[in-house]
Amino acid sequence: MTSESGVPRQLAGAKLSRRELLRAGTILIGSSSIVSLLAAPAASAAPVAAPAQQTSSGGTLVSMVVAEPTSMDIAAGSGQHNYAIMSNVYENLLYWDDKTLDVYPGLAQSYEVAPDGTAYTFKLRQGVKFHDGTEMDADAVAFSYSRVLDPDNEYYKLGQPFPLMDFWYGAIDPKQTIVQNKYTVTLKLKQPFSPLEGYLAWPAASIVSPTAVKKYGAAFRENPVGTGPFKFVSWDHNQKVTFNRFDNYWGDKASLDTLVFRPLVEEQTRYTELIAGNIDLAYDLPPDNLALVKADPRVQYLETPLGHVWFLVLNTTGGPTADVRVRQALAYAIDKKAIINDILKGTGVPATGPVPSVIDYAYNKNVQTFDYDPDKAKQLLTDAGYPNGFTTKFWVTQSGSGMQSPQPMGEAIQAMFGQVGVQASIEVNEWGAYLDKYAAGMPDDVGLAEMSWFTNDAQNIPNLTLTCAGVSPKGYNSGRYCNDTYDQTLKQFYATVDRQQQASIMYEVQDILANDMPNIYVDSQIANAAVSTKFTGFSLHPTQLLRFWKTKLAAG
Question: What is the pTM for the complete model shown?
C-alpha cells in the first residue's frame, strides 16, 4: 500500500476510480465545531466559468473570514474558520487536491500502511524548510504529534486546549512513534482506524516547527511557523490577519505577495464589502443576494457541495414516532425540493442519508428514498393507527453552525406535517441552550428535532449520531436509536483499509438506516463564494479551506 509523490496510494496495483479514492477528515461543526454535498457526480462546481486569463505575479488579496480566529496554532484553534485561513501557513503529511477530497502525499513523498492497519510509515520530502529556516524532518513530525496527543509532553501542557484532537487522532499512540531515519517516520496505532488518512489531510494534523514551539511556548498561538507557501506576518485582533509569500517554499511558489483575512460575521456585511471593493473574496453570502452577485461582472461566482447534512432527528423510543411507519410517513410528508428552492434559494441539494454525496466512494446512490408523497404519508399514518394524525413537539433552533435557515425550515416542515394531519408544536431555543437540551436526549413528548453536521469522513455522522454507545446523554444520539446489527456493521468499517470493502459496508449502513428511518435527511449545503475578477486560479474546496496557493493576479 505505497503511494509515490503525487499519486494516491490506492492507484498502486489497484484499478479504482478517482472518486473511489476519496478520503475524509472531520469538521464537527454540527455538534460544537466539526469535519464533508451534492447528489450529482461533481465534487465541485462553478456555474459561472471564468474565461482564460493572462496572469501576473504579485498583488495583495483581501478575503473575509466568518469569525475572529481563536489561535494561530493550528491544533489549538477551534472552528472551521481557523483551519480555513491557516491552511495557507501550515502543511500536512497528506493533503487534498484542489477541488475534491482525494488524498495525495504532501510533506510525505510516499507512504505505506501495514497490512493490519496499525502502522503508517511515511518517507518525507527532503529539503523542506520551515518559515524560521529550520528543516522539516522525521523528528519534527514526531514532535508535532507528541505535543498534541501525549499529556506527558511538556509542550502539550503549554499548548492546551487542543479541541477534538483525541477524537480525530486518538488512534495514534504518540509514545510509539518510530523515527526510522532523518526522513522516515512510522506512526503506530493503538488499533486499526481506517479513516486516518483523511484525518491526516485535515489541517489540525499539520507539521509545526519544533524550534518555534520551544521558543514561544504558549505564545506559539500568536507566532505560528509552518512550511506552507505563505508565512505569518501579523494578527491585529478583530481587524485582520496578514500573511506574506514564503519565497523559500519547497514546491511551486505562491504568486500573490500578500494575503489579508478580515473577520466579517454578518452575511450582509460580506456582500456590501465585496461590492464596494473593500474585499476581494467573500463566502457564505446571504441567499437573497446571490442573484445580484451572479449578475455582477466584477466578480466570479463560485459554489461547491460541502460535507454537510441537515436533518430531523426522530424520537425512536417514545411517542408516535417510536413506530417506524410513522417515521416513514413523516419522511414522505416533507417536500425537500420546495425547502431548497423557496427557503434556501438553491443553496442546498436533497440528502438521502448521513453520508454526503461529496464522499462519493461511500455514498449509496441507490438507497431507498422517500420522495414527497403526502398520500403515502397519510396511508402509513392510518396503518400505524393514526388516521387523524397526532400532536407532538418539534425542537427548532434560532441559528447555529451548519443550521442554514433553521426557523423558516422548521416552520415549512411544520406546515407540511399539518397537511397530513400531524400537528407539530415548535419550541425555539438559541443555539447554546438548544445543544444542551439536544445532548440530554428527547423526552417522550418531543417527536423530532433539527440538527446538522459537517463531515469529510464517511463514518463520522453514522458513528456519532446513531450508535447505541452514543445514545444521549452519553453522546449525540438524541433520538435514542439503537440497533445492534447497525453497530456491528459500522464497526467493520474501521477494521478494513480496503476501499471497496469500506464502500460496501457503508452502503449497507445506509440501507439499514433507510429501512429504520431514525432520522430524516433533508439537504446538504452548497457553499457559495465570489471572488474579484482581478484574480484567477482560486478553487472553492468542499472543506471550505481558503487555499490561495495557486491564486494569481489577473493581468491587465
Answer: 0.76
